[in-house]
Structure formats: structure tokens, C-alpha cells
Amino acid sequence: MLFLLLRMTWGNWTTVREFILVSFSTLSYELQALLFLLFLIIHLVTLMGNVLIILVTTADSALQSPMYFFLRNLAFLEIGFNLVIVPKMLATLILQDKTISFLGCAAQMYFFFFFGAAECCLLATMAYDRYIAICDPLRYPVIMSRKSCAQLAAASWFAGFPVATVQTTWIFSFPFCGPNRVNHFFCDSPPVIALVCADTSLFELEALTATVLFILFPFLLILGSYVRILATIFRMPSAEGKHKAFSTCSSHLLVVSLFYTTAILMYFRPRSNTSPEHKKMVSLSYTVVTPMLNPIIYSLRNNEVKAALRRIIGRTLSPRKL
């Protein structure tokens, strides 16, 4: 329904019916073929890794705590985020199919905003879970009950809808009068809004507000949570207790660092200081590389996940007793 309304609006305003994704067209075809192989491998590893996280945290009875419930939601988000961006990018590299329809561009941008905003909120929710587990362990089972976890996860997913709906509807209600070359490998808002032939200052103010609300504000919540967590850990009397407490949140802290470092570099730097090619490299970090690293980080740095994997593999490979 949303895109039907948009299409009625576009028909009266725009002369552009499709966009051309510049992607990595400045590189030679041979180098683009190598990038295709590299990104295809990363894409497959991302999908398999996140699916494995979902299966392990679902199948193993020892991984039914709130932390792994949120991790499972994060894996679903990473799969969606990756599928929105990477398949089209692979097509532009190997098939040289750089066109994307008006509706296709709008849909890609919508789900990019949706999964991105939802992931920011879910990472903040995961930080809150670790904060309660370490700073208020006695009340943890009550505060992070199954109902509370479901509500927090649902709120994180729902947070993506308003920002995606407002941003995408607003951008594609602008007139596009001529140039249709998007200097990026997907339909991100800055390179698309650069093609608009109208005053976009009000939209840019709204986009900055949305960026603060859905990137900076969750980041500050995460930062505040970890300040309290670290203060609690340092007050623990035993070295073993400190190590155990820190190990439960180190994976999440590393994932947050990777995600927010690249996101802040992308959306909080002045335009004049950042070239399009640099923006593409930064975008590759959080759209392609980070979703692949997340399941690796949670698998290799988490003893409970590694133990669960060994149990599942052992049950699968061992002969069944008659």
C-alpha cells in the first residue's frame, strides 16, 4: 500500500523510472570479478554463520537464557540486512547489471533503514540485558522474564518501521528530474537525495534528527550501560569473578564497537571531508564485513556457544543406540 501511494505521487513529479548504481564500475572488469568472488564468499559465510547461531541457540537447552534469545534475534536481523544489500551488489559486479527500478530502489532503501534502525535498538537492548545480569543479578530473572524479553525484542524490531517509512516516503516523494546515477553500490539516502531537483533542507534536518535518535541515542545508552558494568566488575573481589563477568559481555562489546564505529564514520562526518569512494569502503564495513564477523565473534569468544556446538556435533555424528 505504501509503495502504491508512492507510485501515484511519483507519476506526477518525476521523469526518472530507474536508477543506475555506479557501484565499483571505475575498476577493471578483472578486479570486479575478484571482488565478486570475495563478496560471494563473505555473503555465504554470513548466511551460514548466522543460520548456525539461530539453530544452535534454538536447539541447545543450555542456551535458552535472555542473552541468547537476543543473539538469535540479532542473527535474523543480520541475515535480512545482508540480503537487502549484497545480492544486488554481486549482480552489478559479475553481470554488469547496474540498473535498479524506482520501486526496487525504494524497497532496498526501506529495508536498509528498517534493519539498520532495528539493529541499533537491539544492540542497546542486549547491553541492557548485560547491565542487569552483572549489576543486579538477584533481580535478573524477574526483570528479564520471558515476557519482558519478548516485549524488548518486539520493540526493537518495531523501531525500524517508523524511521524506514518516514525516510523512504519522504525521499521518493521528491522530484527526480534528470540524473539517475547513484554513486554507491546500493540505494542509500545521501547519494539518492543528491539526485533530487528540489530543496531538501527540511528533509536533511529530519534525517539528522532520525540519525541522532536511532544511532547516537542507542549508542549513548550502550555506553552508559558499559560504564556501570565496568564499575561493577572492578569492584568485584576475585579475579575469577571479574574474568567471568567480563567474558559474558566482551563479545557484545566488540560487535557494538565494529557496528557503531563504521556507522558514526558514515553518518556523522561532514560531507565535504568524505569522498564517494571512501564512503563505499566504510559502507562495505557495516553492510558486508560486520554481519559476517558477528557470528564468528559470538562463536569463537563464547565458551557456552562452543560447548553447545560440540554437543550438537557429537549427537549428530555419534551412532544412535538401538
Describe this structure in words.
The chain crosses the membrane at residues 33-57, 69-95, 107-128, 149-172, 208-231, 252-269, 281-300. GO terms for molecular function: G protein-coupled receptor activity; olfactory receptor activity. It is a multi-pass membrane protein. Keywords: Cell membrane, G-protein coupled receptor, Membrane, Olfaction, Receptor, Sensory transduction, Transducer, Transmembrane, Transmembrane helix. With 322 residues, this protein is mostly helical. The chain has a single domain, classed as Rhodopsin 7-helix transmembrane proteins (Rhopdopsin 7-helix transmembrane proteins, Up-down Bundle). The protein has 12 helices and 3 strands. It has a 3-stranded mixed sheet with strand order 2-1-3. The longest helix is centred in the middle third of the chain and has 34 residues, at 102-135.
